[in-house]
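Query structure, 329 tokens:
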């Protein structure tokens, strides 16, 4: 099981990492950019109806209160490829991680679904163009596959690194999920050569039980986690931009960030309503346990709106997750 490793990864030489100054020079990033620039459908009456709360964004990553299951229609989208949309100005949902199938690859969940209140070893496969499970994945950001779970109200974020069996079966050690509709994303690169594209496939699962949407915290530029404060220094617009964050603690700049997934921080973001995903690529190089206070990312938000942003970073061997709501114009 490789859920959020508690130990720091070995520091690694960084000379071979793709340059941050030119993140789009990396073939994967370039392809991802091309694929993601298409505006994403503002989904069909499925937008969450919860109003923003007037509270500051903090690092809350668990869902909570009882109520009714949200967004029941979303489950029907699980296997819907973006190609099903009419041509022309049709947005490509699959480019934002909202399709279960893309470019001949398909995410298949082996289990009936997680049960509320209990950790689950979720098994899944990625079927390749020949229909059989893919067993050969390229390493990106130090892992062969990055797995995310988020509830439809953008709570309950989990970022895992599942284990791969020889037959192509992945096992993700999901922590207990609160009742509700969840979207599960697999982010990977099939190891098919130098031009292989990064893919994000997802499916939804419904965790039975009483659930109520948690209102999305109001947009802001500051998040806290474990005594650390993360401040975003710019408000982005949709498209590709550089995003900068500053980490401080007790008002002082933090300079002892440790490498995590070959970077000093890992950002992921999910769009309110349709749960489009923006996987954000860290910029800069890693050199020992001296990261911070400033962190830069190449951000690509495929559409405007409110995004729940999860910034993960490591100090003293401990992983911290700060979350905030980011308004993207
Ligand atoms: Cu990951």
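Result returned for the query:
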């Amino acid at each position: 099981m490789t859920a959020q490793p508690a130990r720091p990864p070995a520091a690694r030489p960084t000379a071979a990492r793709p340059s941050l100054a030119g993140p789009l020079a990396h073939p994967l990033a370039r392809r991802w950019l091309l694929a993601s620039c298409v505006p994403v459908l503002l989904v069909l009456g499925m937008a969450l109806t919860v109003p923003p709360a007037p509270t500051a964004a903090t690092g809350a990553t668990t869902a909570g209160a009882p109520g009714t299951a949200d967004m029941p229609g979303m489950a029907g989208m699980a296997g819907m490829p973006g190609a099903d949309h009419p041509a022309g100005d049709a947005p490509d949902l699959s480019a934002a991680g909202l399709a279960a199938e893309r470019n001949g690859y398909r995410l298949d969940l082996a289990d009936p679904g997680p049960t509320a209140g209990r950790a689950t070893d979720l098994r899944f496969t990625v079927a390749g163009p020949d229909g059989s499970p893919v067993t050969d994945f390229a390493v990106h950001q130090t892992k062969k596959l990055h797995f995310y779970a988020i509830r439809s109200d953008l709570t309950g974020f989990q970022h895992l690194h599942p284990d791969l069996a020889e037959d192509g079966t992945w096992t993700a050690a999901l922590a207990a999920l609160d009742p509700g509709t969840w979207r599960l994303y697999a982010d990977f690169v099939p190891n098919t050569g130098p031009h292989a594209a990064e893919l994000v496939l997802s499916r939804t699962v419904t965790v039975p039980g009483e659930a109520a949407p948690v209102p999305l915290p109001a947009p802001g530029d500051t998040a806290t986690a474990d005594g650390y404060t993360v401040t975003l220094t710019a408000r982005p617009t949709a498209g590709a931009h550089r995003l900068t964050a500053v980490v401080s603690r007790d008002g002082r700049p933090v300079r002892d960030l440790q490498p995590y997934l070959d970077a000093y921080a890992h950002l992921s973001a999910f769009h309110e309503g349709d749960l489009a995903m923006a996987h954000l690529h860290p910029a800069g190089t890693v050199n020992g346990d001296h990261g911070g206070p400033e962190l830069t990312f190449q951000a690509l938000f495929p559409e405007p709106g409110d995004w729940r942003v999860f910034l993960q970073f490591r100090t003293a061997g401990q992983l911290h997750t700060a979350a905030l709501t980011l308004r993207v114009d």
